[in-house]
Amino acid sequence: MSLPDRIEAIKADYAHCFGCGAANPIGLGLADFTRDGSKVTASFVPRPAYHGFDNTLHGGIVATALDEIMAWSAILVEEVMVMTGTLDLRYRKPAPVSSRYRLEGQVQERRGRRLRLRGRMLDGATFVAEASGLFIVIDDLAEKL
C-alpha cells in the first residue's frame, strides 16, 4: 500500500480524532502528511476558536499539535500506534492564530515498546515551539496496513 493510501486508511479508522480526524468538527484538522526517512511533516491551519491571548494560539493547542505530529512519526516510521508517556514542551515565540504552520515529527530512538520522539512547530522559517517525549507502543500496524 502506498504512503498516501496508508495515511488515508489510518485517518479513516480514526475519523473522530481531535488531531487529524476529518469527522471531528472542532478538531485540529492536521493535513498534508509526508514522510522523509524518520521525519514526518504535516500542515496545521488554526481555527479562530483556538485563540489564546492577544491573537496568539492557545498553548494547549500548540501542545496538542506537537503531540499529534510526534504520534504520526511513530505511525508512519515505525508502523505502530502509540500513547504519550511524557511530553516536554518549549515555547519559543508567540504563535499567531492567523498563521499556517508546518509540523515536524521525528523518531529519535526505539527500545522495545518505548519510543523517544521529537516535534517542532514552524511559522515559515521561525520555530515557535518544540517538544520531546516518551511514547509507548499500544498496537502494531504492520499487519493491518
Q: What features would you describe in this structure?
A:
It is a single chain. This protein has 145 residues and is of the alpha+beta class. The chain has one domain: Roll (Thiol Ester Dehydrase, Chain A), CATH 3.10.129. The chain is 21% helix and 41% strand. The protein contains two helices and six strands. The chain has a six-stranded antiparallel sheet. Strand 4 and strand 5 form a beta hairpin. The longest helix has 20 residues. It starts with a helix and ends in a 5-residue tail after the last strand. The mean pLDDT is 92.
Q: In total, how many domains does the architecture comprise? A: 1
Main β sheet profile: 6 strands, antiparallel
Strand percent estimate: 35-45%
Count of β-strands: 6
Order of helices and strands: HEEHEEEE
Kindly report the name of the CATH homologous superfamily.
Hotdog Thioesterase
Q: What's the architecture in CATH terms?
A: Roll
CATH class (first level) name: Alpha Beta
Query: Which spans of ≥5 residues are poorly predicted at pLDDT below 50?
Result: none
**Helix/sheet category:** alpha+beta
The largest sheet has its strands arranged as: 1-2-4-5-6-3
